Every structure is written in structure tokens, then in C-alpha cells.
User: Fold phenylalanine--tRNA ligase from Plutella xylostella.
Amino acid sequence: MTWLPLKLKTYQLKTVYSLLNRYSTAAKALTTVNVNGKAFEADDYTNITPKIASYLNSNLHLKKNHPLSLVRQRIVNYFYTFRYAGNPEFSVYDNLNPVVSTKQNFDDLLISLDHVSRAKSDCYYINRGMLLRAHMTAHQSELLRSGLNNFLMIGDVYRRDEIDSTHFPVFHQVDAVRSLHKERLFPNQPDLEIFEPQYDTKNPFTFKNTISDPMKQSCHTLEATKVMETQLKNHLIGMVKTLFGKDIKHRWVDAYFPFTHPSWELEIFYENKWMEVLGCGIVRNEILVNAGPSNTIAYAFGLGLERLAMALYKIPDIRLMWSNDSGFLTQFENKDLDAKITYKPVSSYPQCTNDLSFWLPENLSIDTFMNNDFYELVRGIGGDIVEQVKLKDKFVHPKTKKHSLCYSIVYRHLERTLTQEEVNRIHKDIEVAVATAFNVVIR
Assistant:
């Protein structure tokens, strides 16, 4: 086993050893992993790093005067305007445990076993059965099962992804569900039904629901689907007008999600280009039946708070959301929720860019090497001073047929100037870790 350089810091060593556990048969397998104060049994799926675990319980969406919290409050206030019998229709759950089971995150939402979103390269797994939630929809079935009908789920979600100014392994979502019984859906038309005649609400499991019709699920009547679709779209258009102004242009784009049908994405025309805001649709009836309610129809949607906050406040880099710099945070202090705030850079620090090239071992090729695994190692060593990682070049040697990859790593600190010397030290640490974890040869 190759010795690691002593200059690596403790958290960096843990990251490298975690990767060694996955890529080197010589590394001793972990037996347990501690996440959020609880010990879990580790296995071949364990890929959560100490760096990612350090973001747990940050609750930026609840932090006073934080831009994510301002947007969250505006969305919650909007949905509180929908009232029934004098009370707000939507309840809010913004402190749910981010550690969920694969059943919650995938199975309960009809996400197939071979779906790409289940891949180890896409999620932070604690073990084969547990992970950090990849979307707030992971809590949908448990809340429905508890008897809730209309609710917002707000919190941090975790996905392994590329590194640039708009992507970060942790971001925040608002997801929602609204479900209605026949009496609420058709208050003045008692002859209309939610379900087709052949659907038996007393024995729902005997009905095979299909989504072959692009207009609706086979169990639903067209009238019920269209009324629910109209409510959904009106509610969401009202929300984006509340956030971006009553004159904002919008359009609906047909989409596919495993847990809704039909499904749409909402885009707005913002700063001379179309920007996707959210995904939504009519909840698959199987999800409702499995969670308990078998005689309702529901809509659901999900949106990212970072995307909205960055657009509303002109925040250029998603890493700023995690900054404790007073120059950033004070720009959002004691502001009216509807105030038009434009982020002003405190100062501009220069970038430092270093390239990293390496030859792949014979068992890997430029097409099978997992970029997200590389990004995760770089993030684990470089931390938040890594602004961007880009695949710069792929190369196959014409004679030896060896495969090579070249990445550009952009370093920039948000609160001070980095020296090239310290960047070179970190870059060297990354080189050593990459060579050890992936069995590559640095060029």
C-alpha cells in the first residue's frame, strides 16, 4: 500500500482513505460511519465524506437575514394565503432529518432500480440502505401516511455533481403536495368524479394504473386531471409573479418524472433568456394508495432555493451562500422581504488555475472513468476554494492506446487572495491523492 504524504490534513486523509476503501483492494474496509450523531454500518456503497457531513445541520434556509431564508419566507407567505375554514391550507415542515432510507428516496416514489439517479456516482450513500436525501420529495410518502393533505417540505439536499459557479454538493429545495377529495375538487359539480368507473377506491390495489395516455393517468377522469392541473399551474404562476413581478413572462414545458404524470417544467423569461424554475405534475396514484389515501388526487412540485436567490439577488457564485463574510451577509440584514436587493461584490479576488493530467490504468477508459468521483476527491482536498473543475481534454495515445484525461482546476478564495505557492501545495496534495485513489499515473 502506498504511503500518503504527512502534509495532508486530517480531514483530507479521511477523504483519501474513504476513496481508497472504494478503489483499492489493499485498503481496510470501514465498519461503521458516523452521520448526524448516529453510527451506521458501512458497506461497499458508503461514499459520504467528512467534508459533506460537515454541512449537516447548517440550516441556511432558516438562518436569519440569509438570502435563502428570505426566499423561503416569501414562498411560505405566498402559500399561507391559501386558506380553508379560516386556516392556512398548507402546513410547513422545514427541519426534517436529511438522513433517509433508499425506500423513502427512491422506492416510495416509483423510481426504478436501474434509474440513473440511484447511482453511487450521483448520491451520498451512508450504506446500501441509507443516504443523504437527494430531494425533499423523499419525505412525501411519510407525511401523506401521517394523514396530511397539503404541505411544504423545505430543507437541504445532497447530490454529487460537477464543480462550477452554479453547482454545489449541498443545496436547498422547497417541495410541496396538495391533495383533494372529490368534494373539494368539484364543490359545485357533484356528478363529476375523480376516478374512472372501473377504478375501485375500496380495493385500489386491484387496479393497474398506466401512464400511456399523455393527458392523464388511466385511473383518473380527464375532468379531475384538468381541474387539478389548472389549480397547480395557477398556484405556481402566482408564486413566480410574487417573486419576480406580475409582468414576468412564463411558459410550460412537458416533462417526465417517475412520481408524477402528466408532468411539466415552468420556465420564466428572465434577463433575456428562459430559465427553468421548477418541476411539477399530478402525483402518481400508486404513491397515494401506498401511503394511505386512495380516494384523492394530488399535485406536487419541487424547486431549488439557490437558483431563485441567485437570480433575484444577482449572486454570481453559489459558494457565497456558505460565506460567513459580514460583507456578504450584511447586504441582506433587516430588509423587507419584498425589497429589491442586488448583491454588490465586497472585493474581487483573482483566480489561480492549475491543470492536472494523468494516464488511466488498463481497467479504465476515458468513457468509463467516473467524473463525479474525481470531483469529490478534489472537493475533499481543496474544499471551498475550488471554484471550478472542467474536463479539458481526452486523449488516446495512437501507439500505446493508453487513455489520458486532463482537468483544469480553478482556485479562488471568496474572502482573500490566494498565493500561487499555497495553490501549488494544495494542487500537489490533490495529485498525490488522485494517483493513490484511482491508481493513475500523473503526467
Q: What stands out?
A: The first helix runs from residue 10 to 23. Residues 60-98+133-313 form a domain with the BirA Bifunctional Protein; domain 2 fold (CATH 3.30.930.10).
